[in-house]
Amino acid sequence: MGRVKREREHVEVSIEGAEVKSKYFEKKPKLMHQQVNPDVDYIKNLDSKAYFQYIKELTDDSPERWSRPLDSSIFVSRPGCEPLPSNFKTIYCKIRLMRSKLMTPVDTVGCASLPITVSGHCGIEQVDIEPKNYRLQLLTALMLSSQTKDEVTAQAMENIMQYSMEEFKITQGITLETLLRIDEKKLDELIKSVGFHTRKAKYVKQMAQILVNTFDSDIPTDLPGILSLPGVGPKMGILALQKAWGKMDGIGVDLHVDRLCKMWGWVDAKKCKTPEHTRKQLESWLPRELWYEINPLLVGFGQVICMSRGKRCDLCLANDVCNAVDPKIMNKKAKTEGRATRGDFSQWLEYWDLNKKDVE
């Protein structure tokens, strides 16, 4: 007799404080957030090793981060702030735990990690990346990323890196010198896979010249400065300041964050017509300690589990509290198997299946 698959049921967990508890999940020390006002002059003088360590401490979004529960004080309502949505703490903590077992595109080829990933492909170790060049590459990746999947942006960045190293013999790849020297038409050709590539090639060229003329050949250190650059909107500017300088001047809201916050009722969908509207409403109540991590948290979750099309409610730890669960997906036994269309959720499946046995 062939093996019969049992339907995967919901994994029972409880939320205590801000910690997801289950006999299947290893207990980790709590993650304590500290409010930091970065000293930009200090950061500019750091060598590569010290710089990347400093930024990692402020903006680490590795899987280890998500497995560490948040301190419960983060979820206490603050004076002068809107109250937290009633379902926020439960859903947020469950998504964090799931993310600790998911490998998503944003984790390796998202704009924040892209300079390091692409440099590695080009034979440049992280310790050999000059911080100023990392910041420039980060900003360039963000400018290319609009209306474009992370994987496509990554290929475009690698094209520019390879061309810069081969044509100009500059070992760091993308630098201000290479962006100023590269012909705009050639740049357009190298990034033709990204959305609105011709316009973006023009913006990148203009950006490089402005950095030389106005910002001492480095990226701006505040939001007004970075938003003065052509083709840079609030989401790009906020994310650039976070990963370049460790500054938390706002919440980076892309289409995934916008969609999920509306779906769960964390923002008013009728009032939030754009991601920028969503950002402003989120900032009215979301604890500042979460302003950075909510972006990589929800982007990765939205890429692999809760996509706009083909979402996997059957694999979601929050499927018992989510108001948008699709009953058709939950009722399909076969739906619980298969590979992720993007990223990798195999480690999450292993955790989920710890208490599920095949029946002979």
Walk me through this protein's architecture.
This protein is an all-alpha fold and 360 residues long. The protein folds into 2 domains: 14-34 and 61-101 and 251-337, no CATH class; 107-219, Endonuclease III, domain 1 (Orthogonal Bundle). It is 47% helix and 2% strand. Strands 1-2 form a two-stranded antiparallel sheet. Strand 1 and strand 2 (19-21) form a beta hairpin. Helix 14 (255-263) crosses helix 16. The longest helix has 18 residues, at 150-167. The chain is globular. Mean pLDDT is 88; it is low at 1-8 and 355-360.
Q: What descriptors fit this protein?
A:
360 residues; Endonuclease III, domain 1; HhH_base_excis_C; 2% strand
Strand order of the largest sheet: 1-2
Q: What order do the SSEs take from the amino end to the carboxyl end, as H and E?
A: EEHHHHHHHHHHHHHHHHHH
Task: Name the shape in a single word.
Answer: globular
Strand content: under 5%
How would you sum up the major sheet? 2 strands, antiparallel
Give the helix proportion (percent range): 40-55%
Task: List low-pLDDT spans.
Answer: 1-8, 355-360
Q: In terms of structural class, how would the helical and strand content be classed?
A: mainly alpha
Q: How many structural units, i.e. domains? A: 2
Mean pLDDT: 88
CA distance, first residue to last residue: 7 Å
- What would you report as the Rg, rounded to the nearest angstrom? 21 Å
Number of helices: 18
Total strands:
2
